[in-house]
Amino acid sequence: MITFRLMGKKNIEVAYTPEEMDFLVKGIPRPGAENTLDWLPDISWNMVQALSQLEDFKSFAQNMEKDAPTRFKDWYNELTPEDVKLPLEWKKLDSTPFKKLLVLRCLRPDRITVALTRFIRETLPKGDEYIEMDSKSSFLDVLSSVFADS
User: Fold this and answer.
1) CA quadruple 32, 111, 23, 102: dihedral, nearest 10
2) How far apart are the first and last CA of the chain?
3) 70-113 pLDDT, tens per residue?
4) Domain total for the chain?
5) pTM (2 decimals)?
6) Which of 124, 138, 145 is nearest to 12 (CA)?
7) Contacts for 15 with CB less than 8 Å, ≥ 6 apart
8) Domain boundaries, position 102
9) What is the 8-class DSSP label of residue 125?
């Protein structure tokens, strides 16, 4: 939330639209279109349909369903899809990590925490320090520090 707030105040330069942020945070599926991909759960297909409503993702559902379903299935089945380029022109999303988060939100929500952590590391100044700040402290040290702060 801190990272997103800094992005909203333009303290951190990340290209995104308010609709994209809304989609990432809320992720409301759009049911209705039949899922013809036997490997993709219906909830993920409904999320893809919602993603396709965003300007930069108009052709995403069609690319998945008709243009390269096998390549998208291979990407979907990766252990760490956040590390792998998407098929077709969607490989360009590696240069815009925020937009790749939107695809992960749809297709691999199980990997969104890992991807968000990486995004914060790369986006925040001293992102590594922010992510790792209490990781070497014991629970008692953290609790003592929180108590002292309060």
Assistant:
1) -90
2) 21
3) 999 999 999 999 999 999 999 999 999 999 999 999 999 999 99
4) 1
5) 0.86
6) 124
7) 96, 98, 99
8) 2-149
9) T
